[in-house]
Write a structure and sequence with these properties.
By secondary structure, the protein is mainly alpha-helical. Helix content is 62%, strand content 0%. It is built from four helices and no strands.
């Protein structure tokens, strides 16, 4: 057995281990949103950027922050390019909660 053969066996063993450990990424959003998850993640990123560039963000109360996030989300959902993404009030609450947890 040559040196290159030993490395081939190591690669096979490590690739077998990796395939056993595949973890399915679960989303906090319901399954009917999964098709539009990329759009929702883009909006989430926009909201976080908006918060990052708002110097007085932490001067708002938590209720005011929730209202601002929800207003921004509703404005983004009203745009024609996001027309396919339809969220219930409960799903919007999940979105707002995720944003506040990220800040």
């Amino acid at each position: 057995m040559g040196l290159s053969d030993r490395f081939k066996d190591e690669k096979k063993k490590s690739s077998d281990k990796k395939s056993d450990k595949k973890v399915e990424k679960k989303s906090a959003y319901p399954s009917h949103i999964q098709a539009d998850l990329e759009m929702l993640e883009d909006i989430e990123c926009m909201v976080l950027n908006k918060i990052a560039y708002t110097p007085v963000w932490f001067e708002f109360t938590e209720d005011e922050q929730k209202k601002l996030i929800r207003a921004y989300l509703n404005a983004r959902l009203a745009l024609p390019e996001n027309a396919a993404l339809i969220l219930t009030e409960a799903e919007k609450d999940i979105f707002v909660t995720r944003i506040l947890a990220s800040v």
